[in-house]
Amino acid sequence: MKLSRSLIAISAIATLSIGVLAGCSPASNDGGGDSGSSAAALTIAKPDGAITTESHNPYLGDSSASKYGYAKVIFEPLALVNPTGDLATTPWLAESVEWNDDYTELTVVPRSGVNWSDGEPFTGEDIVFTFDQFLNGKLTDAQGLNYQGATVDGDKITLKFGDSKYTAQARVLHTPIVPKHIWESIEDPNTDPLTEEGLAVGTGPYALSSWTTESVTLTANDDYWGGELAVPELHYVSYGDNAALTTALASGEADWAQAFIPQIEDSYLSADEDNQFLVSPTAGAGTLFFNLQTKPFNNPALREALAWTIDREAYVDIAREGASEPVWNVTGLGTLLEDEILPEYQEENYSVDVDKAKQILTDAGYTWKSDKLIDPDGEAVSFSISVPAGWSDWNTEQALIAEELDEALGIEVKVDQPDWGGWDAARQEGTFQAIIHWLEDTGNVYGLYTSTMDPKWIVDDKAQYNFGRFDDPAVTEALNTYANASTDEDRAAASAVLQTAFAENVPAIPLGAHPLLGEFNTRNYVGWPSEDDQYASGDPTQPGIVQVLTQLESK
Question: Which Pfam families does the annotation name (predicted)?
Fold first, then answer.
C-alpha cells in the first residue's frame, strides 16, 4: 500500500530509539511483574470516564463489556473481517465460511475441538441458537441482519437472510456466538447484564476474573482452542479524558489504547522507544458533506471548484498530524480501493489548482468584487462548516478550510462548533450548510456512495447518512444493484455508474482516510500488527483483538 510521506515518517519515528524524557520513564506493569517479564499483564485503556454499571452482555452497546471492549475477548465471532490491510476474511469459530452468489446464504463449518470456558463443548447448535434468537424475536436485530433461519447438512450449517449481505458481511460474521446451554435459560437477553455467577461464558482467549468500577480483570483461558497465550492477564481501565489516557500511555501505566493524541511525538512516542503508534487506513474517509438543497451548494460548479482548492495534504499533515492518507481521486476512493477505480478515472486526481477552480467558477457565471466571490445571483458566497467543539482534528480542519477558501477564492467560511446534540440535530434535519463527518465503512466502494448519494438514509425527513439529500433515480438503482447483485460483473457495472455520478456531481469531498488508530508498547511482547503487516488494526476495541492476542509472543 502506498502511504503518504507523513505516515511513513510517523512509522519511522515510532521505531527509532528515542531518548526517554525526564520524569517519564515507564512504570512496571501492575498486573504481571517488571518490564521484560514474560508474565506481564496488558492494561487496555479508554478515555471514557468512570464506567459504573456492570454488564457483560455482548449485544448491549451500553454494557460495560461493550464500553470497555472486553466482550470481544470473551465472545468470539464466526470469522474476522479485516477492515484494513488486505481486507481479508479469516475464519475463526467457523473452520470455513462461504457465501452463495447473491450473498443471501452463508454456509459455515463449526470449528472442532472448541470448548466454552465452563468446559462444555462448542457445537453447531450454538451457532444456530445464536442466530435463531433474532428469528424468534427473543433478541432485537439491532444490526438489521434480516435472518430467516438455518438448515443443517452434516457438519455444514447454512444461515439464510432476507436480503443480500454483500455490503454487510462483517455485521453477520462478527455476530458474537453465545452458548445455548446458558442463554436458552436467559429470559430477556436484551436486558440481562449476565452478572450472575457462571453466565459470562465464551469461547474466547480470556475469561472474566473480577469487575470493579476502577478496573476489569480477565485471565487467559487455559483451554483456549487457539493455543497457548503469551499474555496471562488483561486489565481494562477507563481514564477521565484523553489527556489522562495519554499520560498513562506515556508512563507505561497503560499499555494499549486507541485514541487521537495531539502532538503524539512529544506527548507519547518520545517518552519511550518502545511506545508505538499504528495508523491503519480503512475504506472510510473523513468527508466534507454539503447541504445540496440550498445555496451555495445547490450549484455543482461551486462544489467542483472547492474540490480543486481544498488541500487534502494539509488535512493529513496538520489536522490529523499524519494519522491519515489523503484522498485525491475524483471518484472519492482511497488507496485501499484503488484497484476498484474505473480505468478512465485511475489518473484523474484533484490537486490544489486555484486557477482551474477560478476558471470553473467563471464559466458558471461567478465573478469577484473586492476579492470576494459573487454568485450568479449577485450575492457574496459564504457558508458555515459545523463540527462539534472538542473534536480537535476536525476543528483544526475547519480553520484550514476557512483560510484556504478565503485566500484562494474569496469565500467567507464561518467556523461553527456547537455541542454534539446541536450538531447531531442539524445533520439529521438538514439545517446545516457544511459538516465534516465519517462514512459508512462497508469495506468496498458501496460505503462511500451509499453514505453520500443514497436516499434510503432519509427516514421521516431525518438523515442518518446522505446528509446533503442527493437523489438521482439512476444512482439509486445502481446502489440497489450493487448491494443485491449475484455476480461480480453486475457489481462492477453498478460501481461504474456510481463512480461516474460521484465524479460528475461532487456531492461531497472525502478529505482523508478515516483510520483505526492503535497505541501500544513493545516492552514485553512482540508480534503486534505493523505498517508492513496489517493482519489486523492496532485498535483494541475491534474484533481483531483476538487475532492480535494470539500473535503476541514474549520478548
Answer: SBP_bac_5 (PF00496)
